């Protein structure tokens, strides 16, 4: 990125598995070249904003040597750190949800009489404890999310394919 926020990039895309490059392939290549995440990109060709990610580039009239423009927001180092935190939080949510799924399966087993009656009360107490632990984990996750701030700055690019 130049100081004025305008930089030219040459992007080369090749057909993969016999399929011509799609708009999403271009956008992913732009992320590699510029650091601007795909959701933050606005790709413009001949004054039209391109949005159909699964369409081949040829359907927009794009061919070798065409010039496109991308307007986008690149994440700052602070934002990248926050996004990494978000990914870590997502993993934590998935792990906690899996624990609750196991609790649900065991509870179903109890309901269906897979455990002797004299052991059911103790099993229910253990399940109750596991649900409370999961609930506390979810509360901690919500507090982490509540403390996060994600901003961005604008970048302007001219892209040549």
From TrEMBL:
One family name in Pfam for this protein: ubiquitin
User: What positions does the domain BAG occupy?
Assistant: 99-151
Which residues does the UniProt record annotate as the domain Ubiquitin-like? 23-77
Q: Give the record's GO CC terms.
A: cytosol; membrane; nucleus
Q: Which InterPro entries does its entry note?
A: BAG_chaperone_regulator, BAG_dom_sf, BAG_domain, Ubiquitin-like_dom, Ubiquitin-like_domsf
Keywords per UniProt: Chaperone
What GO biological process terms are annotated to this protein in UniProt? protein stabilization
- Output the Gene Ontology terms for molecular function: adenyl-nucleotide exchange factor activity; protein-folding chaperone binding
Q: What is this protein called?
A: BAG family molecular chaperone regulator 1
Taxonomic source organism = Sinocyclocheilus grahami
